[in-house]
Every structure is written in structure tokens, then in C-alpha cells.
Amino acid sequence: MKKTLFLLIMVGYFNTSFAQQNSSQPKDSKGTAKENNSSSNLVFNPDQNVVTEHATTIKGQKVPYKATTGTMPVWDEEGKAIAGLFYTYYERSDVKDRAARPLVISFNGGPGSASVWMHIAYTGPTLLNIDDEGYPLQPYGIKENPYSILDVADIVFVNPVNTGYSRATSKDIPKSTFFGVNADIKYLADWISGFVTRNNRWASPKYLIGESYGTTRVSGLALELQNSQWMYLNGVILVSPTTLGINRGVAADAALKLPYFAATAWYHKMLAADLQNKELTAMLPEVEDFTLNELLPALSKGGSLDEAKRKEIAAKIARYSGLSEKVVLQNNLNVPYNYFWKELLRDQGYTVGRLDSRYKGIDRKDAGDRPDFNAELTSWLHSFTPAINMYLRNNLNYKTDFKYNMFGPVHPWDNSNDSSGENLRQAMAQNPYLNVMVQAGYYDGACDYFNSKYNLWQMDPSGKLKERMSWKGYQSGHMMYLRKQDLETANEDIRIFIKQSLPKNNQPAKY
Predict the structure, then answer these.
(1) Which tens digit of pLDDT belongs to each residue from 150-168?
(2) Which of 276, 398, 460, 511 could cysteine-pair with 69, CB 3.0–4.6 Å?
């Protein structure tokens, strides 16, 4: 079914508790299998790959492609390999002009999360087996993705150190080299430059896509690539973005979550009839207007807010959140996320999910101020973990005895000096070609949709960049693409974004 080229480059051994080994037999320069005499010790090879050939159908069109799966080194200033990043690189194989072919570089978040979620559930050529709303199905496995963006762009899915099969080459390398907002951005920019050079993609239009903490990562990378690698991008796609280091202040932090509360309450039919009978996107503007023009000023007054106004605001918060006025007042008009997830369906015996509040959970007891577990995350791990392990081994022929880290050890993580939102603004200001698109799910409580709008407003206080910024909302959660309808729509939004952000031939990058 596929033609496979397998290349392994062996390096030195490291101790068993730390190092890694690819379990496939190494081959000599002629491709002949050699006996592996490494005993039972695990060996990490930071520079190896497997190439396989495939074909799929996207939007009714046959798309042949090559998949390269393996590791590529992170080098220090002396040219020594200090880590190997595991990646999967998809190239459409019937393209004649590779220079004009866009390249999308994809990261997930955490920090500490593998690049598995968007890989086998969103933009890549394959999908894991789930139902149309994103819930697990058995038997586990994968299928073709008819909505993949591989028809218009090549894609590389990158796993930072300790995620997926990526590892440092020695336990003696300081964790601070990799595990922090700015350290992460710095070494990944070096790696991207090396990858682009090795694969001869300097001429290609380049895009970064990041999800969750990956949005912090790619926002910082946009400027770091310009400043340290002299690499200029055409687009950055932020999927379920974090706050990007943009300070909210106490009042804004408390107020901005209400539209998310309203969306969740609407989904679970906990709102008054006049709100419930509207479409979600018709109901939310009323809540957003109240949030900005009434709630935010009221919260800014804190304890000086007079009692009558306090009760008036509490009644409106209750109306839009599905909570009782008593609960709102008990929390001083600022209901914590955790309490909301526990309280909204408490009388029904359920909690709601953090990353996707469409999901329901069951706690040991109904009492308490937070759910026992994240109902959505356990559901996702249920379906994603078998699928990625099976797919890499059976379909992409990457065989290893190592554990694939869905979530790897990356702590302590240095969150200080996060200016990623400002970095992205500066990169856009310096690069007239650079466009930004945000994708957000209305039911995401970890990186909620209204905060993602607020990011764009605060990143561009002058309004001079807004023509190159766009925002898209979807009726699902953090991973909006798990819902089949949003999978199709969101991929099409990326496809359109890429096409529209490509400059015309010989169009100068200038203001």
C-alpha cells in the first residue's frame, strides 16, 4: 500500500531512566538491516526519520502526499545536539512549484502537551474515530480527513521537548533551557529555522498555528523568527488563545468570563425563555454589551458600589449565567470558573467540563465548590491516546519502545516576562504581510471566547492593524474541531485565510 524509506542515524547511549530508543532495526548505508546489539538499554536518536507515501481525498479531490516522521536536533551554540524534536511533516507530492506552496507549522499547548490534538483531529490528513460531537467510539482508530488543509498547504506538526517522543539528549542539560515562556520560544525558533533550511522551504509562504498555550508560543515566535532568524511569516492562526500576557486587571478579569457563562447556560437550557428561544449568536451580543458597559464599570467600583446597584447587577448576572442571584451575591458579583462548573447543573447531579462545557461529569458528592475531574479531558484522552499510538506505528511506520507523552514533564515552567501578545503586535507592525486569525469555541472555559476578542482589542489599541486581524467563533469548546460541523467550517476558514493572506506576485511589503 505504501513505499517506505527508512533511515536511522545512531548516536551514543544514555542511562536507561532518561534516554530513548527507536526499536526498529538500524540499517547500514545500503539499507540492509543490521543486528541490534544494544542489549536492553534505551537509546535516544535525535536525528532520524521514516518516509511513507499516501493518498487521500479532500473536498472530493485526490491528494497524494509524503509523510516524514522522526526527530531532528535542537543544537546549542557550539553545534552540539542537546535535544531531538519529534515531528510529522506532510508534503503534497504532486506539487510542481514548491516555492509557492504554503507551509504551516503547527503546535499544541499545555505547556507540556504533544502536538497530537490538531494532528489527528483537525488539519492533518487523518482523523481519529469519534462521533459527530467528539465523543469516543470503539474500535479505536483513524480514518481519512476530507476537510484537511493539505490540499492548499504542507503541514509539520512539532512536539516540544518532553512531549510526544521529543527528549533532551542528556539529563544534565538544565531544564531552564527548554521550560519557560521565553526559553521555549528561543529554542523553537532555532529549530524551525533548521527545519526550513533542511527541507528547502525558505521560499515558501509560512504560517504558524498554535492551540491553547501554543498560541502564546506562536505569538512569541512570530517576532523571534523575525529578530533572530530573519524569517518573516504570512500568517499566525490562534486556536483557543490564552491571554497572551496581556494584563486584564481585577475588574476586567472578573467581568470578561460572563459571556462564556451565558453560552454554557444556553447550551444546557438554563436561561429564561426569552433568552433561550434565541439562537446562541443572537443572544450573546446582549450579554457582551452588558459585560463591557455595565458589569465592568460596576466591578471597578468594588465595595463602593451602592447596595441597590449591586442587587441590580447581581440580578442581571444571574439572568445571563443561569445561576441564582443568591450565589452571585455570595461571590461578590465574581463567580469563579470552578464554582460555575460545579454549580450550574448541581441540582441535576452533574458538573460541566472546563475545556468544553457541553461535556457533563459525575462527582462523588454534589456538595463542594469545584468538580472532581475534567469531564471533557478524560473523554478526549480516551479516544486520542490509542489512535496516535496506533497511527504512528501502523500507518507511518514509526516504531519505538518509548512512551508517547500526551502530557510530558515540563515543570517547573517559567511564566515570567510573557509579552507574547505585544510581540505579535510588533511582528505585525514590522511585517506588512503578516495576518492573524483567531478561532474560538463558545463553550471553552479554559480560554474563553470573549477573552480572545479582548486580546485583539488590546493588542491593537491604535486600530491600525485591525484590517489584518480576524475572529471566528464556533459552537463547541476548546477543540472546536471535534464537532464535525465545526471541523469542516474551521478548516475552510483556515483555507480561506491562507488564500487571502498570500500577496499577489511581486506585491511589495510596504505601508
Answers:
(1) 999 999 999 999 999 999 9
(2) 398
